[in-house]
Each structure stands twice: as structure tokens, then as C-alpha cells.
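Entry 14. Structure prediction run on the chain below.
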Amino acid sequence: MPETCWGPVCGWIHIVSQWLKIHVIPFAPLITPLVAMLAGAIALYSIHVARVTARRRAAIDFFLKTDMDKGMADIYKAFRDSLALWEDHAAANKPIEDFIKGPDGKLSDDYRNINTYLNIHELVAVGIRNRVFDHAVCYNFWSDALVRHTERTKAIIEHEVSTEGGAAAYWELRSLSSKWKKRLVKWQAKQTKKATR
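Output returned:
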């Protein structure tokens, strides 16, 4: 024990330091990389959490814009009105070309309105596919509208695929809609089962 150290506290400090010197310091080269690996794992996890949060925020911002922005609200209203006209046109068994082309031979405004809103749905589907938007947030907010609108405009989408856009036309929208439709059907069956209990 050193000459300058006196009292029982200093004795214990000396014993602990000797024990650390014998039992812990030899493992210091192993402890250093373990601490570095732990710090790296924490950093990777924090990056993951930041990315998930950014995806959720991007989805929520997009949906807030679609619901609150006047321009987007006008686009939706035009889509809804044009969709009603399309359903009347289809119910009358008129050719789809009469709806798509106006009397002047150019694309009709109603067709453009539907096409514009379907492009918004396609944008959401591409955002989910490329992991820009959070899948869960998009499903919980947008699934019913996306599936419903895809079903109601199925003939227009099929026409777009068979004529102008090819197989790639609304590919992500069609793919996501079929997945979400299956999921919604399962959810509805589950809710019906719960209600009958």
C-alpha cells in the first residue's frame, strides 16, 4: 500500500485497483471493440427509426395535402363528377371510346379528370413500392379509396393498358389494389364474424 494513502477507504481503493489490474485490464482489448459494436448498433437503430419516421411523415404530409389543398380538393371533385358520368355511360352500354374522346376527337375532360386522379393513386402506389411512404399509414388511410376507385374505373384502366400505356400502365396501382383488396376482404370477414358473436 502506498505511504501517502491512509485510512480504510484508501486500503479498499488499493485492493480494488489491484483486482482490476489483474482481472479486468487484460480484457480491455476485447472490451473496446464490444463497446464500439454496441455504439454502432445503436447508431444503425437510430438511423432505422429516423427513416421509418420520415416515411410516416411523408405519407401523412401527402394525405394532408390531398385532403386540405384547394387544388387537390378540386381535382377530387372533378374526378368524382366524371366518375359518375363514366358509370352512367358504362351502364348504358356505350362504347368506351365515346367517353374517352370528345366530339372534336380529342381526349374528353371527364377522361382526363379520371386519369389525373388515377395518376395520384399510382403515385401513392409507387411511393409505397419505393419505400418513400409508410405502407401501414397509407393502408390505414387510403386503402378503401384506392381499391374502390380502381374497381370503379377498371374498364378505363384496362383500356389504357390495352391501347396507350401498355402493360406498365398503372402497374403499381393495379398490383397494390389487388393486394389491398384481399386484405380488406379478410378484414371485413373478420369484422362480420366478430359482429355475429
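Residues 69-196 form one domain.
Filed with the rest of this week's runs.
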